[in-house]
Amino acid sequence: MAISITTELLDGCVLALLTHEDYYGYALTQQVQEFTPVSESTMYPVLRRLKKENWVITYDQPFQGRNRRYYQITATGRQRLQEIQLDWQNYQSTINRILGGTDDGK
């Protein structure tokens, strides 16, 4: 059973992957799909939103007679990722307590 992922978490996944290297859209989609089910039709609006928020920038590289658009995380994107990571840690801790996890040792 797959649990749906929120917009904020999907943004965080994309930004986290981009901290390791720049990706073009299809390759980035493939990377995200290794962790959670997401379609290309979902990913491209995410990428446009991240660019609009200045969390990523784009550049084109020629490949086999065509251009590939690569995405690169910005300093603002790195700050946003830290916020998402903190939100996730707080959320995860709360859910672990509710579900009987061992987050707080009880």
Distinctive features:
56% helix; alpha+beta; WH-like_DNA-bd_sf; 106 residues; 3 strands; three-stranded antiparallel beta sheet; Tscrpt_reg_PadR_N; Arc Repressor Mutant, subunit A
Descriptive account of the structure:
The protein has 106 residues and is α+β, with helices and mostly antiparallel strands. It has a single domain, classed as Winged helix-like DNA-binding domain superfamily/Winged helix DNA-binding domain (Arc Repressor Mutant, subunit A, Orthogonal Bundle). 56% of the residues lie in helices and 17% in strands. It has a 3-stranded antiparallel sheet. β2 (56-63) and β3 form a beta hairpin. α1 (7-18) crosses α4. It is elongated and about 55 Å long.
Main beta sheet: strand number and arrangement?
A: 3 strands, antiparallel
Supply the number of helical segments.
4
Query: What is the CA-based Rg, rounded?
Result: 16 Å
The proportion of residues forming helix, as a percent range, comes to 55-70%
Order of helices and strands: HEHHEEH
Short description:
The chain has 4 helices and 3 strands.
Summarize the topology.
Layout (H helix, E strand, L loop, with lengths): L6 H12 L4 E2 H9 L6 H13 L3 E8 L2 E8 L1 H25 L7
Antiparallel strand pairs: 1-3, 2-3
Helix pairs in contact: 1-4
